[in-house]
Amino acid sequence: MSEIGYTNAWLQFWYVFVALGVGLLSIILFNAITFCYFIRRKPIDPVRLFTDLNDEDESLLQKEEEFIENSIGANPGFEEDENFEENLSPENYDLNQFRMEALEVHNDYRAKHYAPPLQYSEELSQYAQYWAENMAKVNKLVHSPSEWRLKFNGEPLGENVVLTNGFKLGGKGMSDMWYSESYKHSYQELQKETKSYTQMIWASSRKVGFGRAKSEDGKWYGCAHYYPEGNIIGLFRNNVYPLQQL
Length: 246
Description:
This protein is an alpha+beta fold and about 250 residues long. It has helices spanning about 5-40, 45-50, 60-70, 95-110, 120-140, 170-180, 195-200; strands spanning about 120, 160-165, 205-215, 220-225.
């Protein structure tokens, strides 16, 4: 090969080497700039990803944090009223009708899964109502703090919550929404997407109470408290049964 040929080959090799070096340097520089950009940003709040809150809603966020903090130490102090149906007033008739409808639909569904009927508890309903009203105040669907749910006989309560937008929440509609998760349940252990359904038909739960409240912008929040609580790891096989084949 001539001297000119060797020179051209070396030049081509040098051009390729320089191009690769520039490309590698560009990638390193780009990654460094990207890292510095994101490290300077505020951390992402997962709650904001699924709500309509933004950085300007500081007053709402502060209100929510205060209500959660205060609720942990709150104790409504309600007592069981075994004669609640005899003490209905015009003001609470609609709410109690909602509760009785929810109880009936709950027990209809439970019967289809070999679970005994739930007994209505006025005390649990007062707790559920308290939490539904708190959700309506901050206008956000959120479970109550686990510490707060220890106030019933010192034992934890199971809890289901629901939100509707645009129509009044009824006892049947609320129960139907929770039961609709059944079509996604595999009857193994706990599944995050079917927790409301499995708590609803949990065979060992014996008592239940219901509450609902309306937010200022017209959303309805519903809550149910169950005793004893369900969704306990390791106990699903003896508490969550498939639909009866009639």
